[in-house]
Structures are given as structure tokens and as C-alpha cells.
Amino acid sequence: RQGIGLRRLGTTADEFQQDLLSSLYYRRGTTVESASPRDAYEALALTVRDRLAERRARTAAAHFASNPRWVYYLSAEYLLGAQLEQNLLYSGTGDLASQSLKVLGRTLEEIEDLDVEPGLGNGGLGRLAACLVDAMATRDIPAVGYGIRYDFGIFRQSLEGGAQAERPDDWAFQGNPWEFPAPDDRQTVGFYGHTEPVAGSPTRKSWVPGEIVLGEPSHMLVPGYRTETVNIVRLWRARGSEASFDLSRFAAGQYAEAVQEAVRAENISKVLYPDDSTELGRELRLKQQYFLVSCSLRDIIRRFRLRNEGWDDFAEKTVIQLNDTHPTIAIPELMRLLVDEYELDWDKAWSITRSTFAYTCHTLLPEALETWPVPLFERLLPRHLEIIYLINMFFLREVEARFPGDSDRLRRMSIIGEGSERRVRMAHLAVVGTEAVNGVAELHSKLLRETVLQDFADLWPAKFQNVTNGVSPRRFMKLANPRLSDLITEGLGDDGWLNDLDRLAGLERLAGDASFMERWRAVKRANKVDLAAGDPDSLTDVMIKRFHEYKRQQLKLLHVITMYHRIRANPAGDWVPRTVLFAGKAAPAYHAAKNIIRLINAVGATIAADPVVAPHLTVVFAENYNVTLAERIIPAADLSEQISLAGKEASGTGNMKLALNGAITIGTLDGANIEIRARVGEENFFLFGLDAFQAAEVQISGYHPREHYDRDAELKAAIDAITAGTFGGVGREVADSLLGWDEYLTLADYRSYLDCQEEVERAWRDPDRWTRLSILNTAHSGFFSADRTIADYAARIWRVAPVPVPKDI
Ligand code: 26Q
């Protein structure tokens, strides 16, 4: 027994098998004879989960004993990925599981297919949240991630007649064995209603909500790799209160009306909004945000009070990181709790609030900066709007004191935007109410300081920082690419690189070793055979990310059409065989992006049906891109397409995953591409296109796509083919927008991109050169570990120290 009264779980094959059978009998309630594959899956998941739960119990005890400073990560999205394989790895029970499953007549591979990933996010921001909680646990940082347990995650994408179709993602339809419900920690959340003055207090108000909703938490375990720590992600689900069921209506036969209030309440966590840039002013979205914030803050305060008295230590013991502006209502909500409910005076409450929060921005697109109409805010959260007005008043006084008489500046900086309608600017609120603000790559942080948030950086220069994103080497190397990971481990002598990724630099000396190179190539080839998308000996050219005009899938497509024309014109040419693989979802209402998907599939079909071109060029669109699919594609990639217009992609993280897996980047000077290039070396990176400064100049002096079209015969031919109906008449809107008012300057980068692709082919034709490039990309990408990202946050933003968890607590 351990000090905290736990029975140690067995570590031998026999003990593991015993526990697996116990799970099957006692928790699943079935028998070996009648166990379905799902029974086997659930029993295994519970057995593995128990190993982590034991560590969780010790983690909680160690944290309780040390009463540390806590990191709370607030995010509307988490893309955690499949759990079984990860938890087998992090609990070191993979081999035991394979062995033990034999008693049930199953293989681990078939069981893993039943492990659905919770798709509780859209893309980069949600996956970043998952990589960061993984790295926090790995670095022994006491942390909780808070989020929403959506009933329906990001929609499932399929292609119908080459067009995107969407189906709901009922991810937990068959249950979710990884989740622990914690109904005792439920919270009550108010909406609507009005505020009333409090007698004898000028600042306090009492808010009388018009609707009450319950938030019920459950948590998933987040183990660290090769450490004892197991943190949690706590996800809130909305429920109607008992009062929301109207028994008298039910008795009167009005069944729908009887439950309508409960349905309304439960709709709050029903579905993830499938947009990865702001969707205009939806009330339910704002309700989701406040629901997350209100439940989480009360939970944070509850946890604080378990070990502390009063408020003096709150900001010392708590740092709350806001993942973009989505949880920014936490700022007025903490003020409301402190002032109205705990009766602190305004200044004291403000000083606590400001020193508790930090804000990470993930965008530069002006249309993606969240704003909410004042009338909507006022109706849904009347007290919060009053508090925001007060925050704004004190803030504008501060600005006025620093820049007297500069009314233009006041107007620009105000938290309330006064356009045709008044709107609450969430990014301004987030900057004013936090101690630190960071962008997610060097260029992004610089552009934040110099453009969108310039006035704020003038006022508070020290507040602005950069923390370059990172990714989990466990998930995106060890789990996704076991062959490469084994080879790396052999090359480096041990697998310590998995939580010290800078050690990959040791591969540099093997980049010229003939036998190592040969094996490196063989790994890539085997991964391509597994993926089974196109000829494994062709150049596998991948563009995998959300569909958005700024990311410029349309530029890649112009390249494909040009290759098609070239091959048709010269069928006997010495063509480099390519497989161009696209994957990604478009927001269901984003028609321009969906048109690009249709055009890709139409071009792909035309090429596949062309006996002259098909032997040299294949276009594949892989449906339903998600974390699981990314883990299959990334290890097979030769070329990584990172071709956004410079200045638009905040960071990118797929670019890092691909480089770590030995794909070479063709990219613009955007986001983290710049840092990848700086680290892997400019000779090992295919650079093209305008830089952010040049792009801005073109936009100012006037962009004339027609001039590029008229001047460049191949470009003209590519666009004309679309409009002439070569691809079945699909994509005319795409062609029109390329020649019309294209904010993303696609045609301006076309020639430079095509030239660069020829350089790619020159390198590809020399297999040794390509292999060297590939090894060097992996060797020099260690910086992009999320463990380094977390070390940066911990040192420069959070000022938190690790709390190791003893094995024998
Ligand atoms: C907001 C309001 C209403 C509806 C939707 C949204 C919303 C939802 C998701 C707005 C934005 C997002 C997601 C943004 C995102 O994923 N950004 C990406 O973040 C990555 C991690 O920092 C970066 O690497 C990418 O460059 C950035 O695009």
C-alpha cells in the first residue's frame, strides 16, 4: 500500500490480464464468452485508465501538500486526439495490453479502431491546447485545462460528387471510457435578467438572472510522459435544472413545452461552432463562452479556497491563460464575483484580476478579431456590460493621462467600438485586463505590436511577448511514426529525445551516413505504403489544414493545373511523379472555401481520367481530416505545403509536425515558417513569394491580378482551363475571385511558386540530396517541441515552477 492508501496496480503481464478480466466482469458486466469487440475495448480502456488514475491520485496528493501556484488554461476547444494508444504509451502498458487481449481473442489493432477521437475543436488552436496540456503534464506543472464538453464535435466531412458534405459528429454515442463525471462539482450559471443597486454601496450591484443553467463537469486524464504527473482537462456540459422540467405541462399533455426550457439549457453545450474565424454575433456562441467561463472561474475559486483564506494570495497562487479571446468574459466575470459576491472594493478586485490573467492571440486577420454587439451583450449579460463600461472608463482615463487630448487614440483604443453599431471589442478587453499578451510566432508577435495592437504596445510595451508554438513529439513522432522514431532512437543511442527534443541535433552527423540514409528512405517509403495514397515512389506533396482563402489551397491548385498542361504538352518528358494530397475541412457556410474543394476534386478526376497525365500526377483528397488522419499522413509526407500569404498565418503547427517527420517545406515567409527556415537552414527550405512587408506594399499601391494573368502564359492557361470548362465547369467562382478582388494576392506569388517547385524537383531527382535535406529538417526542428513552448510560458509569463510527484507518496 502507498501512503495515500492505494493498492499498487500490477505491472506484470499476469496482473494486467487479471485486471483486464476484472474490468470485463465487474465494470462492463459481461463475460469472456460473450464479449463483443466493444466490450474488449471498454475493458482495456478502463484497465489502462486505472493505471493513470493511480498516478492521478498521487499527483493530487502532491499538489495538495505543496499548495503550488496553478496554471489554469481556458480554451473553448481541445482536439485531444485518440486516447487509447497515447495512454498505453504514457502508462507503459502497450506490450501488456497486446499480450492480455489474447485472452479475449482480439488484437490491439482491431481494438484501436474503436477508439474515436473527441473532435472538440476546429483546427490549430484546439490542437495547440491539447499539445500544451500534454507538455504541462510532462514538465510537472500543476495545471488544469478547462473547456466545453460538446455533445457534437467538429462535423464529419465526406465528399459527395466532389463537394463537401457534413454530418454531425456524435463522438460519444457509444460512451466514452476516458471520462470521469464529477456531478458533485456542478455549478449554476445565470443569463439575461437585470441588475439592481445594492443599498449603501456605490459599486456593488446585484444581478438577477432570467435564466439558470447547470454546468456539470467531467474530466479526462492528461498524463505526462516519463513523469508521475497526471493533470486533468475539465469539460463542462450544460444541463437544465430540476425546475426546467414543467411537470404540470407534461400532465396536460404538452410534452414538447414541458421540456423546452431544459432543451434550451442543454443546447448550450450541444455543438461546436465549426468556424475557425469569427462568425458574426451568434447569441448561442456568446452563451457558450460565458458558460465555460462562469463554471471554470467558480471551480478555480473553489479549489483556491480548499487551501487558502481570503483573497490576498489569489493572484499569487493562480494564473489563468486565455486561449484567444473566446474566454475573455472571464475578466468581467472575475470582477463581478470579487466586487458583487465577495464584496471587495473595485481597485483591489481590479488589481487581482489584472495580475491573474494572461492572453494568447492566434490571429492577425482583422475579420477574426471577435466583437459582440452591445445590445446582445446587454440582454444576455447585463451586469458584465456595466462592468466592462467601468473598466473602459478607468482605462480611457489612463490613456488620456498618458496622451492628453488625443481623442483619436481614445476612439481607437476603446473597448467599445463605435461604428454603425456599438460593439464590445474582446481583444481590447483581453489586453486591458491581463498582465501579459503573447503572439504565437516571432513574426506574428511583431505584427501584433506594430499593427492591430500598436496603440496598446505604445502604452504598455513590456506587456507584449512572443511564445512560439510547439507540438507534442510523443503524439506526432513516437505514436504517429514508430518506424522513424525507432530509427532515430537507434541513431542517437537512446530515446531521451522524446522529452528533450533538442537532442535531435545529434542526427546531423548521420545525415551523410550512407546506411542511415538508406534506412531513413526505407522508413518514408514504408509509411507511404501504409498510407496507400498514390505510388509510394512518387513525391508525396501534402497540403493538410483547414480550407481558407488566406492559406491559398487555390495556389497549389494552379500549380497542379499547370503540371497537367505541361505533361499533356509533352507526354514523353522526364516528369517527376507526384502525388498531391489535400485534406481539410471548410466551414459549412464558407462558400468560397467549399468551391475550392470542389475544384480540387474536379481537377483530380480529370487528371485520373487522362491516360497521358495520370501516370505522372495523382491528386488525392482525403476525407474528414482530423488528428487521427493527420497521424497517418504526416509520416508519409515528402513535401510540406505552407503557402499562405505572408503576414496572414499566425504560426501554423502542421508545418512543425511535418518538418519533424522529415518533410521538406515549400513555404512563404509567414508565421513559424520563418523560424523553421532559420533553424533548418535556408539551403534546406524551399522559399518563395512576397514577404509580409512586400505584400502590404502591394496592397497599398494596388494589386492588379489581370497584369499577372496577361503576362504569364502558363498562368493564363491554368485559369482559362477552369473557365473554359476543362474540369466540368466547376470552379468558375474560384477563377473569378483570383482575377477579382483577391486579398490574398494569389497570382502575385504564382510564378515564384512554380519556379520554386522546379527547384524541389531538382532536389528530388537526387535521392541522396533529398534524404540529407529530410534528415536535417528533423535534426534541426527540436525547438518546435511543445515542451519548449511550455518552458517559455512557465518562465516568462506564468512564473511557475514544476512540482514533481513522488512515486511513493
Ligand atoms: C470565434 C467566434 C465565433 C465562432 C468561431 C470562432 C473561432 C473559433 C476558432 C475563431 C477562431 C478559431 C480558431 C483559430 C485558430 O485555429 N487559429 C490558429 O491557431 C494556431 C495555434 O496558435 C496557429 O498555429 C494558426 O496559425 C492559427 O490560424
From TrEMBL:
Keywords: Carbohydrate metabolism, Glycosyltransferase, Pyridoxal phosphate, Transferase
Cofactor dependence: pyridoxal 5'-phosphate
Reaction(s) catalysed (UniProt annotation): [(1->4)-alpha-D-glucosyl](n) + phosphate = [(1->4)-alpha-D-glucosyl](n-1) + alpha-D-glucose 1-phosphate
E.C. designation(s): 2.4.1.1
TM regions (residue ranges): none
InterPro entries: Glycg_phsphrylas, Glyco_trans_35, Pyridoxal_P_attach_site
Protein role: Phosphorylase is an important allosteric enzyme in carbohydrate metabolism. Enzymes from different sources differ in their regulatory mechanisms and in their natural substrates. However, all known phosphorylases share catalytic and structural properties.
Similarity remark: Belongs to the glycogen phosphorylase family.
Name of the protein in its database record: Alpha-1,4 glucan phosphorylase
